[in-house]
Structure formats: structure tokens, C-alpha cells
Specification:
Helix content is 32%, strand content 24%. With 303 residues, it is α/β, with parallel strands linked by helices. A nine-stranded mixed beta sheet has the order 7-1-2-8-9-10-11-12-13. The mean pLDDT is 95.
């Protein structure tokens, strides 16, 4: 069990917006959705990939010299990486004194992840926190996720799964038997709009959210508020009506659109076509929050 492996792109300590208390958030690599506003586009591909921070590059040419596969070419506009030739050997990362080169994501064992998680047990105990498995989509790596959940249960560490709920119901049922809390993303109530902006429809998502609630699991519904996509009154009313039909929803989390994904996308050597939206105003967020509070829900903005 300890030697089951999976792909992770980050482990964030002292997280306070990914569930109750102080938490460690483990970000799984790989996601079946392609949300146009994605805050973590480096999570889309499940395998590790090269990254490049152009703002740090001094155009010294050392990365190209170090690359034995000749995947990097120096140009007047800076180095260009041929991802088809790159073998992720890491030589360019070591050669860059400015930290412009990176490999995003790594394969880790359950034991390696748990070693990081257990360093902060004292903070979990004092704050009522624990570990949150996020992504990407953790349900894309069910064996890895289940093994981690099992280890946390054995060590009495509270667990939360931050998920799109876009997975086979059988997988979600197995995970639900082990996890303490689910943070379920609900991006749009309309199937066509959901598919247009995320690449998948929401039928399976809504079915799985309802299934978790029917099974008696504790669920926090998290809604990214993206102007021009899902901030209109019709969607807010439809979403609040759906959530009100569920049992077990303990909180609504409203997440204002964040432009951070655009900067992260620029770090990827394979560019992504992400939309740029406006950040919703405080008044707009308050108005949307009121729609859910009027139905009796506890609402948090920004977490």
C-alpha cells in the first residue's frame, strides 16, 4: 500500500481555504475537464511536463548547451523547447542559475506523500484540520487516492477530497467510503453551457453530487464565479434551487475568478487557450451570496 504511486504537482502546507482548520493540500496531476478559466492549468496533463518562466530567463544559453537531446534552441527571443524531443532529464533545470526552468509534476509513492502530510499533524490536531486531496482531479488516480485515504484513516487524520465529481459513480462510491468530506465543484447548472466552457457536460457531475448527499456524506459546494459564464441570475437561481434539493450540504463556497491561471499557462511549453474574464466586484459576490443565504445555507466567499 505504501508503495502505490501517483502523479503530484504540488503539496501546499498551511492551507486554510481547502476545508476546515489548517490543512495540507496535495495536488494531483491530471484532469478530465478543460475549464477556460482554470486556475491550475498545469494540472491538465497527468504526466510531468517541462515548464519555463520567461520573466526569469537571462538568455544565457546554458539550458540549450546542457540539453543532450537538443530539444532547446536559442533564438533572439529566448530559448524554444521542442516538447517532442524533451525527455524530462532535468539537465536544463540544473543548468539554469535563474530558476527559469522547471519540471512540473513528479511521481510519488504513498509513503513519500504521507511523510510530508505527517509533518504537520500537530497543526491538524490544534485546528481541526487535516489533509485535502485536490488537483487536477484526484479521482483520475483512484488507487493512489484510496491508498492515501486509507493511510490517513489509520493515522486518524481528517480527509477532504476536492473534486469536479466527473468520474464513474463506482469510483466515487469507493472513495466516499474512506473520505470524511467532499469539496464538490459546481460550475454551471446548464448542461450546454457547462460543456461549452469545460469540455464536458454536467450530467454525471450532478448525479454524483446527489449520490454523495444521498449517501450521507458531508459536502461543501464550491462555485467559481466567472463573469460572462455563470454569474447571471438565471444560473444562480437554478444552481441554488438544485443545491437546496440536496441533503448534507454543509456550506457554499463562492470563489471569485482569479487571473492566476493565465500566468501559470504562460509557464507551460505547450500554450493553452484560456479566457480572461473580469474579477467580480464585491457587490456582485455579496449579491450572489445572498441568493444562497436566503435558502438557509452558510456561505463563504473566497474559500
Amino acid at each position: 500500500m505504501l508503495y502505490v504511486t501517483g502523479y503530484v504537482f504540488d503539496i501546499k502546507k498551511y492551507a486554510i481555504h481547502d476545508g476546515p482548520g489548517i490543512r495540507t493540500t496535495v495536488f494531483f496531476k491530471g484532469c478530465p475537464l478543460r475549464c477556460r478559466w482554470c486556475h491550475n492549468p498545469e494540472s491538465w496533463r497527468q504526466s510531468p511536463q517541462p515548464g519555463f518562466r520567461r520573466s526569469r530567463c537571462r538568455m544565457c544559453g546554458r539550458c540549450a548547451e546542457a540539453c543532450q537531446e537538443q530539444a532547446i534552441t536559442s533564438t533572439d527571443n529566448g530559448p524554444v523547447t521542442d516538447v517532442n524531443l524533451c525527455k524530462l532529464c532535468g539537465q536544463c533545470v540544473s543548468a539554469c542559475a535563474w530558476g527559469a526552468r522547471e519540471i512540473i509534476g513528479q511521481q510519488m509513492t504513498v509513503e513519500q506523500v504521507m511523510r510530508e502530510v505527517e509533518k504537520d499533524v500537530i497543526f491538524y490536531d490544534q485546528s481541526g484540520g487535516g489533509v485535502t486531496f485536490s488537483g487536477g482531479e484526484p479521482l483520475m488516480q483512484p488507487q493512489f487516492l484510496l491508498a492515501l485515504l486509507n493511510q490517513c484513516r489509520e493515522k486518524d487524520i481528517h480527509t477532504a477530497v476536492d473534486t469536479t465529481c466527473y468520474a464513474e459513480p463506482e469510483i466515487l462510491q469507493k472513495v466516499a467510503a474512506q473520505a470524511d468530506l467532499f469539496l464538490c465543484d459546481l460550475k454551471h447548472i446548464d448542461t450546454a453551457a457547462h460543456k461549452r466552457f469545460t469540455g464536458v457536460d454536467n450530467d454525471r457531475i450532478l448525479y454524483n453530487i446527489k449520490g454523495l448527499c444521498d449517501a450521507g456524506k458531508k459536502v461543501i459546494i464550491r462555485i467559481p464565479i466567472v463573469p460572462g459564464f455563470n454569474d447571471d441570475p438565471a444560473n444562480i437561481e437554478g444552481t441554488s434551487r438544485f443545491v437546496a434539493s440536496l441533503a448534507g450540504v454543509v456550506e457554499i463556497g463562492l470563489l471569485p475568478y482569479n487571473r492566476g491561471g493565465l500566468e501559470k499557462s504562460a509557464r507551460l511549453t505547450t500554450g493553452l487557450d484560456l479566457m480572461e474574464s473580469e474579477v467580480p466586484s464585491d457587490d456582485k459576490m455579496t449579491q450572489i451570496a445572498a441568493a444562497f443565504r436566503n435558502r438557509g445555507f452558510e456561505v463563504k466567499i473566497g474559500g
